[in-house]
Amino acid sequence: MNRVRVLVVALIVGWAVARGVTAGEPARPVLFQSAPGRFEVAAVDVGGGQRVVELASEAWLLLTAPLVLPESFPSPVFVRLVPAPDWREPGPFRVFVEAGGVVSVRVRWDESTPEVLVRRALVQALIMRQAVARHGVNERLAAPLWLEHACLGWWRTRAEPAQLDALRQASARLAPPDLVQLLTWQRGRDEPPQLTDGSIWLLTLLLAESNKGAEWATLLHRLLVGEAPAAALAASFPARFANELDRERWWQTGWHTLVQARVLPTIDATGSRAEIAERARFVFSRAGNDVMVPLREVLARGTEAVVQAEMERRVAALNRVLPSLHPFYRNAAISLAEALALRDASTGKQEAAWVAFERDWADAVELAAASSAALDALETKRR
Predict the structure, then answer these.
(1) % of the chain surpassing 70 pLDDT
(2) How far is CA 346 from the centre of its chain?
(3) What residues make up the domain containing 342?
(4) Is 142 helix (H, G, I), strand (E, B) or coil?
(5) Counting CB atoms within 10 angstroms of each CB, which of 121, 240, 329, 345 has the fewest?
(6) Residue 2: which of 256, 271, 312, 294 has the closest Cα?
(7) Which of the two residues, 7 and 290, has the higher pLDDT score?
């Protein structure tokens, strides 16, 4: 499960250094880790580092399905927030792939850095990390521009479900782009809404058309090593279309069907379970060691400034993602948010909140397991 590590000692040191408390020494980056083998963020601005590691955790959770992510990589994506006065690159961020397979991204950082820019940097780096994991370091590795925009849109519409309605309304006024034009879209050119929106619908269609994700996983594997997109699509989705005209009709039919559908995006049961488990798991640094702190103890320490700030961040994250959680897990999310929102509550209220969450969590896990077993049995019977 995802583990956001709250490095209390590092936060205190970083707070002092960032404010010049340590005289005569330059500000030094503080390290934050979303989870082992996922993202590691280095930032002088402690608040900025906290926000970016929160975004990185959200990116991993919501993009696990479309990017077919593993539980973790052998080495994380290294993110460095470079103070704006020290920035020397022509663009606002840059992704690096080193000979040993390490993927890193440097982001120009100040208080005005747009969140959408950080999201894009994280997505591009994550795509390249997956490419390296699958194919090693070579000159053919690719991070298709349409896939980058598709992941950005997928992330946005899952984190904020109301954005899906806005996307549908905007897309309804557009004609679907030519599929080959979309698949071969190159960096350095314009990024019109027809292509950015089309990317999201194409990813949605490919996932919907993929049997248990197998066809999409195959196509992703081919795209990340730079295969010709049209040929890779035909090879990965056999029997979907006989020729180029059929392929274009398939795509345009899929576009119109998805744009007209009136459903909110939902994170599947596995993703919903991971989202709540991440928010309920607290790991603090004590005497240089990471220690997992039970939720009951965290609630009891909710008046401490660092703990309280972390609880507030998690409540905000739960409320943001709540509409898109799988129905099995919504009660658990609500009860967890209510528990984390307690301030100066009595021991009895804290205990009752913890018990309510544990009960809702157990019910959700039981429902998900029973549903999965029933579906597996039905599939076995049909064979």
Answers:
(1) 90
(2) 36
(3) 294-382
(4) coil
(5) 240
(6) 271
(7) 290
CATH of the domain at 111: 1.10.390
Query: How far is residue 330 CA from its own chain's centroid?
Result: 19
Handedness of CA 222, 227, 233, 238 (dihedral sign): negative
Cα 93 from Cα 117, distance rounded (Å): 8
3-state percent breakdown (helix, strand, coil) of the chain, nearest 5: 60, 10, 30
In a domain, 61, yes or no: yes
Is pLDDT larger for residue 325 or for residue 150? 150
Express as a percent the part of the chain with pLDDT over 90.
48
Q: What is the pLDDT of residue 320?
A: 75
Contact 65, 72 (CB under 8 A): no
Whether 354 is in a domain gets the answer yes
Same domain assignment for residues 190 and 82: yes
Residues 145, 149, 151, CA angle at the centre, nearest 5°?
115
Q: What letter does residue 101 receive in the DSSP assignment?
A: S
Instruction: Report which of 86, 69, 9 is spatially closest to residue 35, judged by C-alpha positions.
Output: 69
Six-digit token string for 229: 């997109």
83 located within any domain: yes
pLDDT at 227 over 50: yes
Q: Are residues 192 and 335 in the same domain?
A: no
CA dist., res. 7 & res. 32, Å (int): 7
Max Cα distance, the chain (Å): 73
Q: How far apart are CA 300 and CA 344, in angstroms?
A: 9
Number of structural domains the chain divides into: 2
